[in-house]
Every structure is written in structure tokens, then in C-alpha cells.
Amino acid sequence: MPLPGAVRPARPGAERQRVRRLAACCVLALAASAGVPAWADGEPAARASSEFRQLALGLRRTPRPVRSDFAVAVLREMIAMYRAEIKPGDLAVDDSAYARWSRSVSGFADQLQAAADRIAPGTPVAILSGPDGDVYLEVQGRPIIVSAPRMARQAALERSIVAHFCDQYPCDGLIEGYSERSGERIDALPHWQFRVGPVPSCSTGTGLELLFNSERRLLEKRELCRQLFAELAALARALAAAQRRGVALEWDQLRLQAVDAATTQVLVNRAGDGLALSLPTLAASPRLLGSVLPWLISATEGAGHRGILLVVTNTEDLVPGW
Q: Which of 95, 108, 253, 302 is the most buried (most CB within 10 A)?
């Protein structure tokens, strides 16, 4: 992305040559090239690039606030991936190639963060196609390379950008076949954010937001959010179904007990009525369950209960092992 005075960090060898080729051609393009591995779920990596391109080009003539949100999604997912490259101790003050690389990555991520913080709904954002059909952005006239720190991570970056943006906006008309797949997703997938401070957070888009107290282990926190929201959505659905069957829900009696690694017993009233679900993270985190209980009640009661906005702070302190 060149920012004023910024140079994209480059690894030795192939990665440095790749960046130089991009600069020499003056084409700020996506790097969805050969060598990108298959997705974890078995779908080809080419699909990530195809979906990202469909989304990006489909947004070219949308209102400015929508394009601004897309630029924010791009930057925030890049920030997460670049910062995940840095491990504790990598920023040691020495002159080794790896230490220089780590410091460069850290500085570049800071500049990406500053750029993301400056984007407002009215910020000019253009989505353009390069000579070879590649897609890149111009934010306030400045080009942005949508590029992962390593070529092997490009498909994952594009997939995370699509997921981030499509958790905010309906993408059915932008990505072919997206509506069929989106119907299979849980209805509370998180929208990952970075806040000024910096305080990372994730939210369901249905009134629950979890705040973390540092930017350490960002990718792990993303997965923690996905797991927690999946479990909370499953619990809310199961409780609502039990209530429709006539089971009395006594919220002050709600208890989760792990039976084994795959089964959680959910006790819902003094009579001992219960459900068997798979909620390993919630079962191990009773303090977190207590903190999100008002949201869970609202989600279970549905349209018959007034929706709420609940923000939980210092989420790390409420989950064992963090």
C-alpha cells in the first residue's frame, strides 16, 4: 500500500522480488497467483480470488459509505494478518535480516492502522481494475496493494475480507452462489473490528460486542470469537425451541456442565429440565456466560423481547487460558 514515506515490508528472495516487480510496473494489484494453497475446507484457493474480485468490482458504483466500509474491511484484515506475523521477541534490537523484517512489518501494520482510523463514511474510495484484470483500491487518491505478507496467505486474506464485509452487507447479488452458502452459516457470525486505542473487538451484529484488552494473539482471538458466537447462537436456538415446547426457562438457574469433550448439559430450571449440546467454551467460562446473559435472554425471547446492546469488556479475563 504505499502510504506517505512507507515501503511495504518484503521478505528476502522471492517476496522481495515480487514487490519490486509490482513497483516497477506501477501496478498495485492482488497477488492471487500460483502457489496459494487450498482452503482448509477443501475448496480451491482460486475461489477466494474469484469471490474477492466479484465483490470488489460489484462495489465500484455503490454509495461512498459502502466503498469506505469495504476499504476498512480490507485494511483491518491486512492489519490482523501482518501483526500475526510478529511473535514475542521478534522485534529484538539487532541487525539480523529477520529482526529487520519484523520491525518493518510492525511499522507497516501501524501505518495501515493509521490509514484505517482516518477513513470516514465520506472518504473517497475508488475500486479499480488493473491491466491484467487485477483489483486494487485508491483511498483519497492513494493506491493500496491488497496483499498478504506471504504469498501463501493471499487466499486466506481475500477470504477474510469477503467474510468481514459480507457480515455487514448482503452479498447475495454481488457474489455468485453466495446466498446458498450464507444460508448454511450460523446467524451470528462475528464482524471483526480494530478500534482506536487500540482495543480489538468482535460483534455479532445482533447487539453483542466483546472487547479485548490488547492486540496480542489476534488470529486466536478471532477464532475465539467465532467459537463463542457459534455456541451462543446454538444455545439461544435450543433454549427458544425448548420454550416453545413448554419448558419453563428460569434464567437465574441456567447452568452449563461439561459431560465430556463433546457434550454439555444445560440445566434450565429448578425442576432439572435440561438440554444436551456441544458448548465446550461456554461451559468452561461461567463468568463470561453470566456477563452475556442479558443478551442471551434477548436473543432467546426474540421478537417478544426488546432487543438490547451489550458490550463485554476485558473478555480475556472471562475465558480460562487467556
A: 108
Which residue has 510492525 as its cell numbers? 106
CA angle 304, 306, 307 (to 5 degrees): 115
Rounded Cα–Cα distance for residues 9 and 150 (Å) = 10
Per DSSP, the three-state class of 126 is: strand
Neighbours of 315 (CB within 10 A): 24
Q: Contact 135/127 with Cβ under 8 angstroms?
A: yes
Over residues 195-241, the pLDDT tens digits come to 434 577 787 667 788 888 887 777 688 788 888 988 998 899 899 88
Please choose, from the candidates 222, 215, 227, 216, the residue with its C-alpha nearest in 3D space to the C-alpha of residue 282. Answer: 227
One-letter amino acid for residue 43 of the chain: E
138-174: per-residue pLDDT in tens? 998 888 888 888 888 888 899 889 888 887 677 777 8
Domain locations along the chain: 14-185, 218-318
- The helix (run of H) or strand (run of E) holding residue 301 is helix 286-301
User: Residues 6 or more apart from 217 whose CB is under 8 A from it?
Assistant: none
Backbone angles phi, psi at 258, to 5 degrees: -75, 125
First-to-last alpha carbon distance for the chain, in angstroms, is: 33
How far is the C-alpha of 318 from the C-alpha of 297, rounded, in Å?
A: 19
C-alpha cell at 200: 480489538
d(CA 155, CA 173): 22
Distance CA 171, CA 177 (A): 10
